[in-house]
Specification:
Blueprint: H1 2-27, H2 42-48, H3 55-77, H4 82-86, H5 102-119, H6 140-155, H7 172-175, H8 178-205, H9 211-234, E1 246-253, H10 258-268, H11 273-288, E2 294-296, H12 310-323, E3 326-333, E4 341-347, E5 353-358, E6 379-381, E7 384-390, H13 397-405, E8 410-415, H14 422-436, E9 439-444, E10 450-452, E11 458-461, E12 470-477, H15 485-489, H16 492-516
Parallel strand pairs: 1-2, 2-3, 7-8, 8-9
Antiparallel strand pairs: 1-12, 3-4, 4-5, 6-7, 9-10, 10-11
Helix pairs in contact: 1-2, 1-3, 2-3, 2-8, 3-5, 6-8, 6-16, 8-9, 8-14, 10-11, 13-14
Length: 517
């Protein structure tokens, strides 16, 4: 009987972890069942909420859930053969096997995380069942989870996939919370909701709480959440102008990758396949972007040093004058002795170069570099203050936040995504818009171009999964008062979570020592 109980206990742990992992995966792109995130962790926390204290089971369930859903998302995002398809001829670090970092992470890093969670006693919850714990200890799991996501972001530990706030990118009402405390506040609210549901249900099943009291306990966070949303919606930065200035944007997407231009160059006997790509972008722009106020090209359209190449500068200036529009022209330099440079310039309708932005966050795990990054310039124009980010930059909340703090009213994202990551990049752009109350537009070579309002609502986009040749056009607002509390205060809520973790763990240790005296 004892062995049978142990067997059912192990099966329960495994079932709860698998159930939570499956629900979490379905909440993320490309599935986007965002509402599942608010209940996905209930099976996992149900193990922690058992009336009988089972700290080992709690740690095992939490660690297994984390490893399972992260592993599934990882293999979706970085399939074998990825780098040979996306970055032909580049030098990659030794973590790549089968042209993907997924195998390395799955075999080495994720099992290591499991060991840390389980044996190092990473606090996934109090050392007593959640159903028996004091209510203020219910803040510990969301604080730990939120702090983990923040540390992953700061250390670039695969933070692009698996962050709970990513699940809400199609729910602007939920993303409004991020204006107050950034994405970290949204993650905290998601995990806390799961904890409350599991703990209250456990108390009801254990006969410790009446159904009426349980309903009251669940109603309290709903009321608090509603208050947060109202505060975010009514903050001065979030107020829309009665008649906001609008401009027409044109996002150029050729539907082809550099490898396609290489193949085209071989067929045509042309050696400069980078030149073919640039000419194709110009042609498509002429065909479909006439009359636009702002034109955005995809990442690394030009493979010339625009800062030093007079011919390239003259060609870009002439094109901006021809189109009578502001032009964000990204370029890539692989001849600089310092290393690769991934940059973009903004050119006025008069052909004047208004400034340069360099990519702040290259994708280091596939060997990318950007030796001139580190600045957050904005560009004043007759239509408003513009700024730009490049692809992976949008996955780091600090870039858009600093650009908006510097005065940006519209941020243009230029990207060169691979199909498996495209949905996540679109989600990241929507989140950066909502966090900072700023208009964001995104132009990619093949898929996932998007136009996003300051609320985070995507009003126009191309498929994130299928290549398409088009110019995505839309009228977008240029908010007079971009920015939010998060823009001004930064990652204050992540710091609060760190204080919560330290304080609650200290309280637990004190309680343990007092109990042993």
């Amino acid at each position: 009987m004892k062995n049978q109980t142990k067997l059912f206990g192990l099966l329960g742990i495994l079932a709860s972890a698998v159930a939570s992992a499956v629900l979490l995966v379905l909440a993320f792109p490309p599935y986007d069942y965002w509402f599942l995130a608010w209940v996905a962790l209930v099976p996992m926390f149900a193990v922690m909420a058992l009336p009988t204290p089972r700290p080992r089971a709690a740690r095992a369930a939490a660690a297994l859930t984390f490893v399972l859903y992260m592993g599934v998302l990882l293999w979706q995002a970085f399939p074998p053969g990825l780098t040979s398809r996306a970055w032909r001829g580049s030098d990659f670090p030794p973590i790549l096997f089968l042209d993907s970092p997924a195998l390395f992470v799955s075999v080495i890093l994720l099992p290591t995380l499991f060991v840390l969670f389980y044996f190092a006693r990473v606090p996934c919850g109090p050392p007593v069942a959640l159903a028996q714990a004091r209510p203020y200890f219910w803040l510990l799991p969301p604080a730990v989870w939120t702090l983990t996501e923040y540390v992953r972001y700061r250390l670039q530990l695969g933070h692009i996939w698996g962050n709970l706030f990513t699940t809400q990118h199609t729910a602007p009402a939920a993303m409004a919370i991020t204006r107050l405390g950034g994405p970290w506040l949204l993650t905290f609210c998601i995990v806390l909701t799961n904890v409350l549901i599991a703990a209250v249900l456990a108390r009801v099943l254990a006969g410790r709480t009446s159904p009426a009291a349980a309903a009251t306990a669940l109603a309290i966070p709903l009321i608090l959440g509603g208050a947060l949303l109202m505060t975010a919606a009514q903050s001065p930065a979030a107020q829309e102008q009665s008649e906001p200035q609008t401009i027409e944007v044109a996002l150029v997407q050729t539907g082809l990758d550099m490898s396609d231009y290489f193949d085209r160059g071989v067929e045509q006997g042309a050696r400069d396949y980078y030149g073919l790509a640039w000419s194709d972008v110009e042609q498509l722009t002429r065909e479909q972007a006439q009359g636009a106020d702002l034109i955005v090209w995809p990442e690394a359209t030009v493979w010339r040093d625009v800062q030093a190449d007079d011919e390239a500068r003259a060609r870009l200036a002439q094109f901006a004058r021809e189109m009578n529009a502001y032009l964000f022209a990204p370029y890539f330099v692989d001849t600089d002795p310092r290393g690769f440079r991934n940059e973009a310039v903004l050119i006025s309708p008069q052909g004047e170069f208004l400034g340069m932005y360099a990519k702040n966050y290259p994708i280091i795990y596939v060997g990318e570099q950007s030796v001139t990054g580190g600045e957050h310039p904005v560009f004043a124009t007759s239509l408003g203050t513009f700024a730009t980010m490049m692809a992976y930059d949008s996955d780091f909340p600090d870039v858009a936040r600093k650009l908006t703090a510097n005065g940006a009213q519209l941020i243009a994202v230029t990207s060169h995504d691979w199909v498996e990551m495209s949905p996540f990049q679109v989600a990241a752009s929507a989140q950066r818009a909502a966090e900072n109350n700023v208009t964001v537009v995104k132009a990619d070579w093949r898929y996932g171009s998007a136009v996003i309002l300051p609320s985070g609502e995507i009003i126009a986009s191309t498929s994130a999964l299928a290549p398409e040749r088009t110019v995505l056009r839309a009228a977008v607002p240029v908010p007079a008062s971009s920015g939010s509390l998060y823009t001004r205060a930064g990652d204050w809520f992540a710091g609060l979570c760190a204080l919560l973790v330290v304080g609650l763990l200290g309280r637990l240790l004190w309680a343990r020592r007092s109990a042993h005296r």
